[in-house]
Amino acid sequence: SLPIGVCYGLNGNNLPPPSEVVGLYKRSGIEFLRLYEPRSDVLEALRGSGLAVALCPANEDLANIAQRPDAADAWVNTNIAPYMSDVLFRWIILGNEVIPGPLANYVPAAIANTRNSLAAIGLANVTVTTAIPGNALEASYPPSAGAFSSDVTDVMIAVAGILASSGAPLMINVYPYFSYASNPSQVSVDYALFAATTPVVTDGSFLYYDLFDAMVDAFHAALEKIGYPGLRLAIGESGWPSAGNDPFTSIDNAMIYNRNLVNHVLTNGTPRRPGEIMETFLFAMFNENLKQGAVEQNFGFFYPNMNPVYPFW
How far apart are CA 151 and CA 149, in angstroms? Predict the structure, then answer.
């Protein structure tokens, strides 16, 4: 088994029962599971599984959790406390891609209140963080130019401060696929798939052989610029679709990207952080037929019937 996670999305009307899904994770040797909403049927299925769980409150609950400590207590007492004796909660992710956006300013207080609520039930060691997308950056090329957008700089200073105070990493969702598919004349497929054999980008003393590292280091540079050079990163999502946008999507490309990503994150940091191994979640467990558009519906390692889309695990 590998210390790697896979995101368990539920945007499908033909997905297997949660108990079967948990069994599939365990058979596949996947150690971490990311869940985007506190579904009681999934949490029940996770009892005794030994899987380390990353749980997100629904984004619509963020404002309440941020504004009212008793609402954070209620969320924890409803969704964590009843399961904590036999479900291993390792991460709570307050807001998935809500920075930038109208909910962004709730994130720092939501993290603080949730940490306090977890500590009150003896779970002070759970990592509490948020997950942000690439468009939180206004500049990312070259990586040393990485900078947060002006509209999120203040909230990111607050988020970074509260994460630094607990030693938690900032989660980032990183998708070289979208950069490549939207700009194939400038981005080579080898650079996107970790297959380049010579440096593609030279950024001062840093040499980049793959787009993933360049995207991650743009976040490191952005954190340096707001005064948090020591803040660690974790990968909240990364993946490659197997269909939906030929020729950029294919089973081969998806398999190569994900295989190379796993090998890379388990053994390497990035040029800016060479020794730093990042906790990583791959997206996603299943093809989800209620997501928007063919590409978004084809990120899965497995079909809803639990057959693999390609050999991987």
Answer: 5
